[in-house]
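Form P-L/3: holo structure prediction, ligand 4-methylsulfanyl-2-ureido-butyric acid.
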Amino acid sequence: MTRRTVTLAAAQLGPIQKAEGRDVAVGRMVRLMEQAHRRGVEIVVFPELALTTFFPRWWEEDVSRADHWFEHAMPSNETAPLFEAARRYGIGFHLGYAERTPEGRRFNTAIYVHPSGEVVLKYRKVHLPGHREHDPVRTVQHLEKRYFEVGDLGFPVVRAPVGGTAANIGLMICNDRRWPEAWRVLGLQQVELVMLGYNTPSLNMDNKGFEAHHLRIEHSHLSIRAGCYQNACFGVATAKAGTEDGHELFGHSIIVNPQGEILAQATSWADELITADCDLDQCALGRSTIFDFAAHRRPEAYGRITSQTGSEAPPVWNPAS
Ligand code: CDT
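OUTPUT (holo model):
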């Protein structure tokens, strides 16, 4: 019987300061891949926008002045050491980065790279949080809507070699993890492994006293655990963590199984590798019982999900008497 247990790792990155170049980040990432190799890891998942500081917190009047944060080629001279490390160690890796296309379009992008160095799957972030214009009320900006277009690749899943087996793999990026629609589109393609990276500020700028501090992490974990359980898949969710130029990101990277259980969790807000041995055949239980989509889904009742964006007020009940 084919072995379907793969050793997965979330390679959390500590802060990357605004003044630090890609060489610093890439050097740290290669060291994490060396560590992963020593621990027998087959896939390493790096965070969203892993090569630089989380630059959407910084305002630029002229968007093109942010272009130095973007990758114009993948791989490039600066990112080539990651691809070389993948080949040297026989490890596949997930990388999040800011993509500038040859046509001049800008996306928040993630790729999964086979140990050969070939890009297997590419995804461009669909749910862009934050705002487009400078908000003087906020002490930290979140300008993803300014710097990125909405992703145009949907939520693709592909069956690809993973360690000694093959798996249905899908990608999402940060805020996507909070949207059940994103998970379900992957689930409908029988995804077995979801890789995602995130940069989440510890402070909610829009908090009006209703969200206790610790719930920031709870909400992230809740979303990932529910997504994995309801779609019978594994999830590797990797943070950028710690304080970047005075602005804190919360870390707490996790690896989750199809039961929604956390198998491994980062304990620092620094560079940290967490690993788990994951038997992909565990995806079969949920998929063939409570979440047997073919048997139980009722798309005829879900019309609002795709026909409507914002919520609508319900009709007001009128008592008969
Ligand atoms: N990077 C990213 O998508 N972060 C968001 C925080 C948005 S706060 C305006 C997240 O959902 O974690």
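COMMENT: The helical segments are 22-38, 80-89, 144-147, 180-187, 215-231, 283-288, 293-296, 303-307.
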